[in-house]
Amino acid sequence: MIDLYYWTTPNGHKVTLFLEETGLPYTIKPINIAKDEQFAPDFLKISPNNRIPAIVDHEPEDGQGPVSVFESGAILLYLAEKTGQFLPADSRKRLQALEWLFWQMGGLGPMAGQNHHFGVFAAEKIPYAIERYVKETARLYGVLNKRLADREFIADEYSIADMACFPWIASYKRQQQNLDDFPHLARWFDAIAARPATVRAYGLVGHYNDKAVGLPDRG
């Protein structure tokens, strides 16, 4: 059994995508970041950087008792290795999946997150900051669009790289992006959005946060 410490953010969705795809049994432990629950001492024992998501695996492979993991990329890699799923066995494709996982962690996530902050949440709207992060988000969308020009998924087969990137692209409207400007990315996005596990993962949103936005309607 996996305990998932979760809130309805792109990083939280990464892990529910994986768990719903694999059918691993899990229990959600909601951490309402709007109420600063991420600073609770018990949660900090699991996630010392006071960020969601985090997990506790009560049945790790080494059989030495529960293990906790924080940081969404590390969680995806841990779960992929635990299950033997969604991380290519071929060494070169595995490397590609990891490259793009780290690309998301180091680029797409932080830049899109700053886009969200300055464009939506900041009390003071600073035009320079908004323009900077909207443009950088568009550049990163272009990088991923080019990658997807000749392949179905980021590392050819659906992997943790796709699961890491998808929830950040799902907020494209908030990021002031138009997916029609990135046709390969749009095709990839629509294919993942239609997966039953994706629908189930995003269907959890309303159970925990009635103000959160689920999958966008691309109509």
TrEMBL record:
Homology family: Belongs to the GST superfamily.
Top-level taxon in the UniProt lineage: Bacteria
Boundaries of every GST N-terminal domain copy: 1-87
Domain GST C-terminal: 90-219
Extent of the signal sequence: none
Protein name: Thiol:disulfide oxidoreductase
InterPro entries assigned: Glutathione-S-Trfase_C-like, Glutathione-S-Trfase_C_sf, Glutathione_S-Trfase, Glutathione_S-Trfase_N, GST_C, Thioredoxin-like_sf
